[in-house]
């Protein structure tokens, strides 16, 4: 099945919560809360067979609604009778010993604990009242409890008090700055940053330190890393060949958005519907790459309709998960078994994404339409510079007398003479400014043999070989009655099988062939490949002629390139041109009105392009005609003389440089809809070819009504609905994920699932407070994070002594500070950072750092352009991990080893494992060992005192000085390693030359090897790999 279902994993996690987190449920005389205490039990044990999904419902009984639960059956009792468990069929079935009657049934392998039964009985005795699922209720600003500290601290404090717990004292300053630095930058603080914070004893020192990290460019890189997991960003298509796709501009947009503190509502709208905004900017179009991040295929034999269906399902599921925290994909095949989302409602959400303009088959291409060019950081300044240069040339052209004396010959036809013409297009060299290309050989101009002039072009090869250009020179115009001529000399000792001339108008679609016709360019038997005659005689110059019409070349066409081509031998080309008859009144190069009639729009900028396309019949304003004429005289007219042409050559050079600059700008995928929307249907059983009831774009009815701005709801309507004040989920979901980033676990532990199978919030009032504050503050992400980080709650020490550990092993009550293992990228980046090797360059194509050999090839198809891993070199080896090239079928092995997702689908919460392989990687991987040498080298250069070197390495990694016992152990370890390497200098050299960077030549190799092992040891301490 294409939907990668994670339900089993999530449910098993929920069972663990029931065992370890029972103190979250009502105990003793505490008032029961249906959402907190009862719904999780019913959802996990009962709703599969007695929930929303009518197709799988047993005994026509619904327990997810009070109407279903209290409805009395014709025979037998109602499932629930308020206040009377002994008359409630639900309770009687729960306590029954009869396997035919007991619920859950034995074959379901679901059992109720004694605590579950106690809670259900209490609930029935208390009236069995239902509540709407908490996450679907609009948040209400709660009353802040009394207490000390910030509002957040007081909410936390009230829960601690209820559970007989005390907050932990504030962590020391070394711990605080390391905690903040990793949370906001993904890197440890420098020694200088630590010392600066320790020495600042004035009020507000901690807040100023937090602000410095929020203002750092590293902040956006760290924040983006989490979002890219959710967006399922990758640098490859993800299926079949898993070829490279160019989408890194989207990744860079995410980084910039966090650094610029783009409000989260705008961040949402631009990603889901940036193309539908009025006059969208390039950045807003780049943002729509969110919905192009999904896995795509170009596999032959795939069914296009199925792929289009799968893409829309993915986009709908991802949107629901990322913004609403709902597992909507569970309703793709049937009504959701737990949440009030029907299959019809899922396909209404799917309908927003079912009119995508991107094709079913990605073509295994680097770029699959729709795409756009991405402006460089200095783009506006660069274009202004080009415009200044070109305007300067045009002004100098206007000062020449011929500019004002030009007369359109079409205005006085009686005085016009029609003459035969000959234009030479090649004599000694290609046209002025032409950027000449070839088939892998240098351009060869020889002085023997020559037909005329000084040089002839020599071209030869065992197979096809050619010289050509397609840019840089002024366009050449095909005259009326054109007849092209070319002089060729075929080498009698190396006679080619074929010679060819080719022309580039709007494309390379015009050719003439003499000889064998074996070069497979263009469609045979058409003007794209016209056979003009047999191979000419060898050993002497032969004039070849061919009518332009035979090659599809019409009078007035603009030629921007031509090519001389041979196959299997050597030929010389010379004196190439065209004969024609010249009627100035109809020649676009001579007559302004003829040019307008010809509608030659290639290269013409807007709005002049549109004016030409509208034709000469449409009346134009004098100002518009003046602009058109200025363009014509400066760039088109060919009758203004040599002095004018020299100026035009200058202009062409500037404009060619500008065109090449813009051509060199990177492109990226963007999202766009088809002009006419596809019709959408409920797809029976989730099958692409089983349409059922027709649906329109819409949202689940359990949530507030979507406001449409037109007849049909659009993605912009959807995006605005997501961030509307009425939506109860979006703000809660995102503030919970930010909390998860800072504390390691969300206020709602199941950050992926805010539905009925998800956890009840540990601090529901605090969650609502944060969500509403976030909205009221303009969805300001930095303000939210700052507010949380300034709390006493975040600043607590993380030591977990009893009873804080015994009563709350997961720290759900927040009686201590956060403590959890660093993520894969943070571990790698920490090593690079403290080593001094890190390259802080931002943006651009993903880089290829070290990784073990032969990881990609075993999982790749033969034709894949990511079959072989082409390791980078130099500074690229030391870029931040967020810029590592992400191949989905084989992610970087370190990332996979430390639980980074493959990004084949959305991920809003990473797992955290601890395995022996992780320890092996941190101790032996070339990136880490080389980094350890870099840190050892920095320590040796910082001081000659061994004790201070230990301090330097230790403080660089964990932000504090070692204790006396720690220092003694490290010093003993160093002495042992130093002695070993002094007696085996060749082993020392091996140790310090691990990796591409070179060790300092002025340092003792044996001592550097020993300090490298010390650094490696400290980088592997628990304290170094954990954020405490």
Q: Largest sheet, if any?
A: 10 strands, mixed
**Alpha-carbon Rg, integer:** 36 Å
Question: Could you say which structural class the secondary elements and strand pairing correspond to?
Answer: alpha+beta
Q: What do we call the CATH topology of the domain at 419-582?
A: Jelly Rolls
Mean pLDDT: 92
Low-confidence stretches: 1-23
Number of DSSP strand runs? 18
Strand content: 5-15%
Termini Cα gap: 41 Å
Number of helices: 36
**CATH architecture call of the domain at 419-582:** Sandwich
Output the CATH homologous superfamily of the domain at 419-582.
Galactose-binding domain-like
As a percent range, the share of helical residues equals 25-40%
Instruction: Give the overall shape.
Output: globular
CATH class of the domain at 419-582: Mainly Beta
Q: Quick recap of the structure?
A:
The chain is of the alpha+beta class and 1028 residues long. The protein contains 36 helices and 18 strands.
Description of the structure:
It is a single chain. With 1028 residues, the protein is an alpha+beta fold. Among the domains are: 7-131, no CATH class; 379-404 and 640-665; 419-582, Jelly Rolls; 924-1027, no CATH class. It contains 36 helices and 18 strands. The strands form 5 sheets. Strands 2, 3, 4, 5, 7, 8, 9, 10, 11 and 13 form a 10-stranded mixed sheet that branches. A hairpin with a 7-residue loop joins strand 15 and strand 16. Helix 17 (379-398) runs antiparallel to helix 22. The radius of gyration is 36 Å and the shape is globular. It starts with 6 loop residues before the first helix and ends with a strand. Residues 1-23 have low confidence and may be disordered.
